[in-house]
Write a structure and sequence with these properties.
432 residues, alpha+beta, 17-stranded antiparallel sheet, two-stranded parallel ribbon, 28% strand, globular
């Protein structure tokens, strides 16, 4: 993507027919000039999502697989339908094998914790790296938040960035669970990224992303509820953005929950449920979006017989917090509503009639691993290295060794608690 066309898109408004309004001559900000210099030097890469997935949802470039809808087809009524039949077959075989192992362990009085998931269904990255990839739109939208003077405009960019991240990292391949103390380092453009697994049980990770104009920190505690043919996923904790402006404007973001159906039989379908909530603690502004709203957008409402889309969302920006409790039709006609938001989370975000994000219009900045990270980095995991090299047997062996070490360390911690003794500063088992 040329630097001119890339940054030009951010200053154009997309009309209903998909065309662009005449471009207005605008002086670039110092930050944009700096990013253009870095682009010309090759220090920064902008990626056009249209070339890495976009609305087609199918793409064969594995380099950006985690950021796209690769392997999915969009079903307006059901949600995202996963079409990689080979991977689905591997996962179902692994689940049957796991169920057999569970039954065998129960019959022989062994712990269920001794059952290890096969690496054939794993992705070549840890959960820390996958979580960090949720912020690849930050160099675009968080910078816009910093530059905007009106708090409402800042909130609009926060809404756009949050919705844009929903289609990222939806790979059906399982990431490696981080070990307590495991880290990950990388960069997203000029944004430094640090992640660490800070708790073993419950599994909790913390993320810190920092650059000149803003800081993002997050606590991720993933929970999984399984059913006979489906599962629901929730990310407890928070995401916080602190702008380095005079007011130190601070945002807290709460994410919705997700559901995947078709684990054992039928179509594999992914969809979001619940609400996105964004709070501007500094200016007392609130945004709330209801996903899978079961309604039609304004444009779709003009056509009779058209079903409501699964990926449709609607919401509002307000200063009246009480308005968010109900989110009924009455709320959207209230005088306290500052801005109306709607869109399709796999396609676009529209606020007050203007499109703030489109999947095939706005580029993202990919996450790049730190080449020389700390020794505790995911990059050095023996099971992950073996899987990347294509050695499934060695990867499975190393994975089980690491899991046994974790179980042993937990026994030591539990034993120390029972004896009411002080733990050493570090307790670990050294491999190699």
């Amino acid at each position: 993507v040329s630097t001119q066309s890339t940054w030009g898109l951010m200053d154009k408004k997309i009309q209903d027919d998909g065309s662009e309004e005449p471009e207005e001559k605008k002086e670039l900000s110092p930050e944009e000039k700096e990013m253009l210099k870095r682009l010309e030097k090759g220090e920064l890469e902008l990626v056009d999502s249209k070339k890495t997935g976009g609305k087609s949802a199918i793409n064969n470039d594995p380099k950006y697989e985690q950021y796209t809808l690769m392997g999915y087809e969009v079903n307006p009524k059901l949600g995202l339908v996963y079409k990689d039949l080979d991977n689905i077959s591997k996962q179902r075989k692994a689940i049957f094998t796991l169920l057999k192992s569970l039954g065998s362990n129960l019959l022989h009085g062994k712990s269920l914790m001794n059952v290890s998931m096969p690496v054939t269904i794993f992705d070549t990255m840890s959960l820390l790296e996958r979580s960090a990839g949720d912020y690849i739109y930050a160099p675009i939208y968080a910078e816009k938040m910093y530059e905007a003077e009106d708090p409402v405009d800042k909130m609009k960019y926060a809404v756009a960035m949050t919705v844009a991240s929903l289609h990222l990292n939806l790979s059906q391949k399982k990431p490696f669970n981080p070990i307590w103390g495991e880290t990950f380092q990388g960069k997203i453009g000029n944004l430094n990224v640090w992640c660490e697994q800070t708790s073993h049980h419950p599994p909790i990770s913390h993320l810190l992303l920092d650059c000149e104009h803003y800081t993002i920190d997050a606590k991720h505690q993933f929970t999984l509820s399984t059913y006979p043919n489906s599962a629901t996923f929730k990310c407890l904790g928070h995401r916080r953005i602190v702008l380095k402006d005079k007011a130190k404007t601070t945002y807290i973001i709460d994410f919705p929950w997700a559901e995947t159906k078709g684990f054992m039989f039928g179509a594999r379908v992914f969809s979001y449920k619940g609400n996105i909530r964004i709070r501007d603690k500094t200016n007392k502004l609130y945004a709330q979006l209801r996903l899978n709203a079961g309604e039609k957008s304004f444009a779709e409402g003009l056509f009779k017989g058209q079903d409501a889309r699964n990926d449709f969302f609607k919401g509002l920006i307000t200063k009246n917090k009480a308005l968010l409790k109900d989110m009924s039709r009455k709320a959207f006609y209230s005088k306290d509503m500052i801005s109306y938001v709607e869109g399709l989370w796999i396609d676009y975000v529209m606020i007050d009639g203007d499109k703030y994000w489109e999947i095939d219009k706005v580029p993202f900045v990919p996450l790049v691993r730190e080449p020389n990270p700390l020794p505790s980095d995911s990059l050095y995991r023996n099971d992950l290295k073996a899987l990347i090299s294509g050695s499934l047997e060695e990867s499975q062996k190393q994975k089980e060794i690491m899991e046994e070490i974790q179980r042993n360390d937990r026994k030591l911690r539990d034993l120390a608690k029972k004896k009411k003794q002080l733990m050493p500063l570090f307790t670990c088992t050294v491999i190699n």
